[in-house]
Amino acid sequence: MTANVKKTRKKTDQSDTSQAVEEFLLEQLPIPQALRNHLTFSIGKSNSWATTRDWYQTAAFTVRDHLMSRWVNTRDAYRDANTKRVYYLSLEFLIGRMLSNAALNLGIAPELSDGLQQIGQKLEGIAELEPDAALGNGGLGRLAACFVDSMATMDIPATGYGIRYDYGMFRQTIEHGQQKENPDNWLRYQNIWEVQRPEHTCEVKFYGRVLHVHTEHGIEHHWVDHETVVAMPYDVPVPGYGTQTVNNLRLWSAKATNEFDLAHFNEGNYEKSVEGRHGAETISQVLYPNDTSESGKALRLKQQYFFVSASTQDILHRFTNYNADWDTLPEKVAIQLNDTHPSIAVAEMMHQLVDHYHLQWDRAWKLVTKMFAYTNHTLMPEALETWSVELFAQLLPRHLDIIYEINHQFLQMVNQHFPGDTGLLQRVSIIDETHGRRVRMAHLAIVGSHTVNGVAELHSELLKATLFADFNKIYPGKFTNVTNGITPRRWLNQANPLLTELLTKHIGTGFQKDLSLIKKIEPFADNAAFRKAFREVKKANKQRLADKIMQKTGIAIDADALFDVQIKRIHEYKRQLLNVLHVITLYNRIRTGQVSVHTPRVVIFAGKAAPGYWLAKQIIRLINDVASMINHDPAVNHQLKVVFYPNYEVSAAEILFPGADLSEQISTAGTEASGTGNMKMALNGALTIGTLDGANVEIKEEVGDENIFIFGLTTPEVAKLKAEGYNPWDYYHSNPELKQVIDMIGSGFFSVEEPARYQAIVDTLLHKGDQYLLLADYAAYITAQDKVAALYQDQEAWSRMAILNVARMAKFSSDRTIADYAARIWQVSPFKL
């Protein structure tokens, strides 16, 4: 028996709404006057007393006015049309600063800049006061942000769902060469861009037990004795570029049901009086809490269920407000799971449909598998989340029951199609019985989704052939590919205004919204005057980066040097350590005079290591120790410098990408799902040095073999070498340069006060099997770097290749990615206001 659902949609007078919005737009003040008004009436100051931060807030309020009218209009139009919507569930949304981006997307950036100049302010200066929203860590979160930008730009009705973290992951500082994690208090000042929506709060349950009650309608399941946390929604507008559409990003913040216990307070037990509030709010405080402890694991699972439950309730509340027939649910709702983190949504949707709306199990399951789609972002089995059955039973007892039932029916189906194959049943079971009984979240997502996609052609094929080969056999046709992309609005229009201006001058506007138009610049690669102008733009961007590096680190670098850049999460498979081996090799060659014509080079690293990832943090420390040695050595520091740029975030990336000459994408083949930093750097005129891994394969196909530096083992060669028995000692003993470099690290050459500091790194390479084959790829990498250095001597040839990289990046627009999702996976069409 279904719950009572409203049989008619709520009616609003659309003509009145549209007329009100139109009148508001017509009545909006000129931006200079709006700025002065907001300074007076929103900030409460006069010009003579205003600080730079006051002017940032004033400008943000002014842009927000233009956003709000479109936002309201978009929401009302979706509601009145009752159109199908996409719901994008992601634990991260690395949206970056909003002021400049929103002004650009709304088309008011020139007026805003002029208005600020009239009152003695510069847009670039006040924009620096906006903190980066600490809602993500790296590529996964930035991808989600690119996607919501593209969905709005392409008029796809969509809502993003995530968590409003109080402190995000952490703010990274480097002290004595080591990463130090500090709270990233990005909400210290008012977040002008969000709107709290208390009328849409949800309750989320944890712990307790389940009562199974027999009734005339069957067995009912009641989750009792639970703890309850309130999910408070905060909405952030997402403006499209060159359109009236402003979509919504809804972020949930955890609140206690009873934030203050007056009785305890009156008894003098002040800590006890706020205990409930602190316990609840912990859930949304920090992204990726350290899970090396049991309490850390529990908090991670709590986070994931918290935002998934609130989002699922919100989706169903919206559906039931305007629809009476449950069978139309997949016609109105498409849910995309961004990686494994939100995969508990499959069980939560069943919980809501069966326990709260009282649908029959089979009917509910059919609806679930028509709504959900799952994006996988990893090829490494250890990166697929699993949770102990014991933790699940304690934290989410009803969901464990549901997962058991899903698994039971799934295994029955598998056994019918592949009778007697017990090995297959064990491998695909949602419950792993071989490692202490654990819930395999990726398996839950696959079983509960109608489509599973990888994020690069190579990655998707490897998923089908290796990681999920069994599922591919069970579900032929379920697995597909959607290559990732990046938004040209953020990563060209905003991050690189000089290059945008140069391109616009020669090929006109339009490429910001339709990146295929950028191919028109290709003939100019053979134009000497254009190459010169292109180099001048790159030089200016490099000088901007050099100035920022001096400000952040005190290290002076020459903008004429080759800027060799590797910026991404610090992880062994991304092989920042291989880059360090090359740096030390170059250092040795310069000191011994082996380089006759040297190309001055600045090697720039940036990225964060997870707080519990000790070896990654050691790699950061090694980078800084090597940098200290080289940068203070007068024999080499005019030819080689090393920089670790602290606290890598979106606003830093917007300076680093345009300033890069060489893009380091050197992960072990078969380990990187896609990568999007490679796309951003190429779009900004950097040449790629990389393995045939992730999206590098497709970048190579687009830019041409002659315009990229590919080296190293391929994925089949990696597999073959490991199968035959890879021995890193063979490479160590056969290559004198490599042996010297490793011996220097191990002997304390870069850490004289603590000679054994990096013994663990040496052990990883030599005694523990060199899992990511750095030594096997070392010689090929050094050879490729020699080719890079030689080519950089010929600036005409280098700039020609860089221009062709820019011109051939059209495939890697996130607009193309979203169009692919919309047509093949979500079955949703653009909705023009």
TrEMBL record:
SUPFAM superfamilies hit by this protein: UDP-Glycosyltransferase/glycogen phosphorylase
GO terms classed as biological process: glycogen catabolic process
Domain of life of the source: Bacteria
GO cellular component, one term: cytoplasm
GO molecular-function term, one example from the UniProt record: glycogen phosphorylase activity
EC number: 2.4.1.1
Reactions accelerated catalytically: [(1->4)-alpha-D-glucosyl](n) + phosphate = [(1->4)-alpha-D-glucosyl](n-1) + alpha-D-glucose 1-phosphate
Keywords from the named record: Carbohydrate metabolism, Glycogen metabolism, Glycosyltransferase, Pyridoxal phosphate, Transferase
Top-tier EC class: transferase
Requisite cofactors: pyridoxal 5'-phosphate
N6-(pyridoxal phosphate)lysine PTM positions: 680
Family classification: Belongs to the glycogen phosphorylase family.
Biological function: Allosteric enzyme that catalyzes the rate-limiting step in glycogen catabolism, the phosphorolytic cleavage of glycogen to produce glucose-1-phosphate, and plays a central role in maintaining cellular and organismal glucose homeostasis.
Protein name as it appears in the record: Alpha-1,4 glucan phosphorylase
